[in-house]
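user: At home tonight, take the chain set out below, taking as long as you need, and be ready to discuss the fold:
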Amino acid sequence: MYVCIGVIVAAVAVYLFARYQKKEQSARIYCLILAVSGILGILVCIDDQGMGNVDSVVRREPGDGSYTEKYVLGVEDLKLEESYDLTVENRHLDETEKRALFLRAIEEATTLCLEKNESADHVDHDLVLVKSVCDGLVKVNWSFDHYRAMDINGKLAKGLPEEGTLVTVTADLSYEKDHMEHTFTICVFPANMTEKEAFYAALEETIDKANAAVGGKLQLPGFVDGHQISWKKPKNNMPDLLVLLGIVSCAAMAIGKKTDEKKARQNRMDQLQQEFPQMLSQMSLLLSAGMTVYHAWGKIVQSYERSIDVADSLTQAVYEEMAVTWRQMKDGVGERDAYEQFGQRIGLQCYRKFANLLTQNLRKGTAGLSALLEKEVENAFADQESMIKKKGEELETKLLGPMLVMLLLVMVLILIPATSGFQITM
């Protein structure tokens, strides 16, 4: 219990520390896990304290079966203390309860047996011989005084007299070691079947005769009870399923490809957003050193290409785009058009604004461009910091699911041993 109290205290401490560090969202999750674990642990400790010596055990209700419970068996004289598996049988009924159960079983068995017929005085449908009644507590075995009117399964025989045949039905009811017999008489008449039921009865009889014949093949009947019939194997749906599987697979591949392309575009946009402050800082530094925009652009591209050739490092999206723009200008495309295409090709607002500043520089001159770029560098780094914080918050939100699953697992691991002790009473 002291450990559990310590866990709760630790949870409060974590919450206060995290609140001081301005991380309330993650702190609430950690504290919830620790606090729930500690509270459940205390409840288990309290429950265990009330289970020192046990002198009785709760039995299950009749029909629910027995169960095994582990105990520590102690015998002081023998200096014995070891684990013992105690088998606890379900509660047994007293004589009054047994009589009431058998009476209910007789009524239920009789009702179910005759449910397809008008009454016991007029039976013209097969009997329903259930194996158990009263939710499975009472087993039932059926028998008849003769089997000329029906078989052992309660199916009516053919050729019964129109005036009816008396049959004595015996239901042997059993509950645990107790038995009771219930006998009643029914009057059986020729089966009252619909045209469809009569056809299937004749079909079964014909097939039984065909099965009894000698030969390597079963001859299927073509005429039954005056009806011409045909036989065919059910349609094999496997080709249709294979075609459907192919269509679904193609659709899944197309959706997956589009999803991958969308994810790749988003990753590229994120990379361009992250690389913008570094590129802008390099451009501002070179312009401050007295270079023109054209030469500064070429310097950045050439430096990037040398680093790729020497170090064989990963490519960077923004410098690849700058390299495309540099080759356009080398091929004769005007600076203004090249810078505008650079901003439009990337599409991000920050790059469009950067391209506009460069095109304005070509129209109005370089005065003040360096200062504007320095200000843009500050804003870009601030935006990058804000974006990193936002992604961190999104990551914390995504971790909520796994952390809640872990919390549920902890609760289950603690509650299972606790609830298993609720079967025991003092």
Summary: The CA atoms of residues 203 and 224 lie 6 Å apart. The chain is about 60% helix and 15% strand.
